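In this supplementary section we document a worked example of the pipeline. Step one takes a protein sequence of length 226 as its only input; no multiple sequence alignment statistics are reported here. Step two produces a three-dimensional model, which step three serialises into C-alpha cells for compact storage. The input and output of this example are shown verbatim.
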Amino acid sequence: MLRGFLNARSPLRILERGLHGGLGRGNLGLVLAGHGVGKTPFLVGVALDGLLRGDQVLHVALDSSVAHTRAHYDTLFDDLAQATRLEDEAVVRGEALRLLSIRAWPRARFGVEKLREALRVAEETGARPGLLIVEGFEVAAASGAELDGLAALAQELPAELWLSAALPGEQAALPEDIAPGRFAVILALEPGHSAVALRALKDHDSPGAGKLRVSLDPRTLLLKRS
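The serialised model returned by step three reads:
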C-alpha cells in the first residue's frame, strides 16, 4: 500500500468522523482505560497517524524512558507496515519518525512550565508540534490551574494535546475525581473477547456520545475498523 492510501484508509479517519472532526487543534483530549488495556498503543497509534501525515509530534513520557517509549513507536510501525504491506517502508519510516520528539521526565518534576520550555526548544529548531501527548500525567490529582495551563498551551500552538488516565477497573465510566469540563473529547477503552472497543464519554458538545466504529486489535494493538 502506498503512503497516501495508508493515510486515507486509516481507522483514524473513521474515528474523526465519529467525533465530529476528531479532537481538533487547540483542544485537550483524554483517554481512559484499566491498566494494560491499551492506552499507550492508542496514543502511539494517534501519533503515528500524525507523523505519517507530516505533523511534528512531541511525546512526553513521565516516569518512563525515551528508549522505552521509542520502542513502542518502532513496534507499532513495524506491525502497521506489515499489516498494510506498506511500500518503501524504510523511506517512510525515516521520514515519519524524524518528525517525532520524545522527552522523558520524572513525574514529580513535570509541570506546565517544563513543557513550555521543551516547546521553546522545539520551536528554535523549527519543530513546532501539531500534536502533543503527555503520558503518565496524573489527571485526577491535577489542579485546575495545571489543566488550564495545558489547555492554554494547546490553544497557543495550536495543537491537539492528549492525556491518559487509568481506570480503577474495566468499567468505561468517567471517574468522579476527573472533571470533564476542560476536555473536548474523552474516550474510554473497553476490553472485549475479540477487540478493545472505543467509547466516547464526551464528544465536544454533542449529546450523542457512545460506542465508536473503531477498536484496538488485542493481538497487534493496531487500531481497526469495528
